[in-house]
Amino acid sequence: MTRLVWLLLVFGVFSCSAQSDEVRPLRFPMDDQSAIKAGGAELLEAVCPGEVKQSDRGVGCAGCPGQEISEHRRGDHPPPQLSIVSVIRGHFLSPASQDAVVWATGCWYGSYGQSGVFYLLTHRSGKWDLADQGGGLYRRCHKVRLQDKREVLVCIATYHSANGIDFLVYLQDFTSDAPEQMLYSLNDVSEQCGWGVPDSAGQLTDKPAPISLTYIDAIEFKNAAGQPPSFSIIVSKGTKLMRRQDCEDLPRKFGSPVIPTQSTRVTFSWTGETFERTSRGSTRK
Q1: What is the pLDDT of residue 269?
Q2: Domain encompassing residue 77
Q3: Which pLDDT does position 194 carry in this prediction?
Q4: Residue 88 pairs with which residues in a beta bridge?
Q5: What was the pLDDT predicted at 225?
Q6: pLDDT score recorded for residue 27
Q7: How confident is the model at residue 105, as a pLDDT?
Q8: 52 contacts 44 by C-beta, under 8 angstroms
Q9: Widest CA span of the chain, in angstroms?
Q10: CA dist list (Å): 26 to 14, 158, 253
Q11: Among candidates 94, 51, 17, which has minimal Cα distance to 255?
């Protein structure tokens, strides 16, 4: 299992811990479908044959495939059950294959609670077969069609930790020797307003220090005929020199202090094997 998969298992993809209920909007063309709309019940027969459950609320398994849940973990709660979060159908193994990626939760736990798993299914001889599976609950993914008509996924995940908010952009290519490839990451610590400036004795003071607000504003894709696919990550970043108390007194939006930002466009292009960073430019915001 790759380092990226373990990272997502440990930290989860959903925002956790005490934080603002506001969610900063991120423009990203998601291609996932709901379990019912995507035919999740038929797909899950390859994962938990004979134990698929479907209701108005969604699709899942009667238990946790391949797991035995001990009584001390179960406690007074009902036994855990696998539940589909989302499905993306496409041509991930070859230009002609009929495939589906199913993301599910309910049975796996990381340091911050529930994490998840993905199943790669392919349609052969009139039925769905399990081709691959791994850890990580990927919530936002976009299909990118390559020049040979096969498809890969570009995904973004965000999570809260003690060090702020992390943004991860990665490639999911199921035919590669490295199916999960980290393409870009950044960390925003503006919610904490810094930790103060240490003096010569190592004691924290309230001297002015640079406080930075950094986040991904959007991911834009370009797939022109006859050209390798590419995409741009629009990053917003601003830094202001101030005392920690002044930062804490600032108005807040989406949980972070309001600091003027400038946008930067980071572009990636397909090389035939992966997406590589090719250019960077900035515009005032």
Answers
A1: 97
A2: 3-284
A3: 73
A4: 101
A5: 83
A6: 94
A7: 87
A8: yes
A9: 72
A10: 14, 11, 14
A11: 17
Residue 197 pLDDT: 66
Give me the number of domains the chain comprises: 1
Taking a C-beta distance cutoff of 8 angstroms, is the pair 270, 230 a contact?
yes
Strand arrangement of the beta sheet that strand 230-242 belongs to? 209-222, 230-242, 262-270, 275-284
CA pair distance 178, 211, nearest whole angstrom: 36
**Single-letter residue type at 68:** E
- Per the DSSP assignment, residues forming a β-bridge with 230 are 222, 269
Residue 44: φ, ψ to 5°:
-70, -15
* pLDDT of res. 121: 97
The beta-strand segments (E) located in the chain are 52-55, 58-61, 83-90, 99-110, 113-124, 127-135, 140-145, 151-161, 164-172, 180-188, 197-198, 204-205, 209-222, 230-242, 252-253, 256-257, 262-270, 275-284
Q: Can you list the residues of the chain whose pLDDT is less than 70?
A: 1-22, 67-78, 108-115, 136-139, 195-197, 199, 280-285
- 166 near 7, Cβ under 8 Å? no
Whether the CB-CB separation of 220 and 232 falls below 8 Å is answered with yes
